[in-house]
Amino acid sequence: MSLQLGIPLIVLASILQGAVLSQLRVFGGQPDLVMVIVLAWAVLDRAQEGIVWAFFGGLLLDLFSGTPLGVSSLAMMPLAFAASFIESRMYRENFVIPVVLAIVGALLYHILYVLLMRFLVNIQIEWSVVWWYVTLPSVVFDIILFVPTLRILRYPYDWLHPRQVTV
Predict the structure, then answer these.
(1) Chain-wide mean pLDDT for the chain?
(2) Distance (Å, rounded) from C-alpha 85 to C-alpha 106?
(3) Residue 86 belongs to what domain range?
(4) Residue of 35, 36, 9 lying closest to 148 (CA atoms)
(5) Helix 136-160 crosses helix 96-119 at what angle (to 10 degrees)?
(6) Is residue 83 one of the residues assigned to a domain?
(7) Count of domains for the chain
C-alpha cells in the first residue's frame, strides 16, 4: 500500500477498531477492520506490502486497544504473507474465492491471536467460550466486511499501481 493511502488508512482503521468497533459487540464478537484491510490489500498486491502493513497495523492496533504490543502483528503477518500468493485476478472473476479467503483468514487470525495470548502472554483461556462467543461471531463480521473492502480497495490499488501494457 503506498504511503499516501496506507498510513492514513491503517491509522484510521486502528483508531476506529480500538475506540469504536470494540464497543460494537454482537454475541461477543467484533469486526476486525485492520485485519480485513490488511488481508484485502495482500490479495490485491503480490508484493510484500501486505506484510509490512500487517506489522504496522498490528502495532497500532495493540497500542490503541491495550493488547500486549506485537500480538496482533504476529497474528496478521502470516496471513498477509499467505494471501499475497493468491492471484489478484482470481477474486475479480469469482465471488466464492474471496468469501472462502475471508473465512479461512479470519479463523486463522483468531486462532493465532488466541494461541499467542495463551502462550506468550500466559493468559488463561477457556477454549470453548472463546471459540463460540468471540471467534465465530467475529468471523461472521469479518466475512461481511471482507468482500466490500476488497472491492473498494481495488480502485485505489489500480490507481496507485497501473498495469503495464505491452505493445
Answers:
(1) 82
(2) 17
(3) 3-160
(4) 36
(5) 120
(6) yes
(7) 1
The answer as to whether 86 is a domain residue is yes
* pLDDT score for 86: 72
Judge whether 84 and 76 are in contact, CB under 8 Å. Answer: no
**pTM, to two decimals:** 0.85
Give the count of beta carbons closer than 10 Å to the beta carbon of residue 47: 11
In a domain, 20, yes or no: yes
Please tell me the distance from the alpha carbon of residue 69 to that of residue 63, in angstroms, as a whole number.
Answer: 7
pLDDT of 62 > 60? The answer is yes
- Residue 55 CA to residue 146 CA, distance in Å, equals 19
**12-37 core/surface letters (b: 16 or more CB in 10 A; e: else):** ebbbebbeebeeeeeeebbbbbbbbb
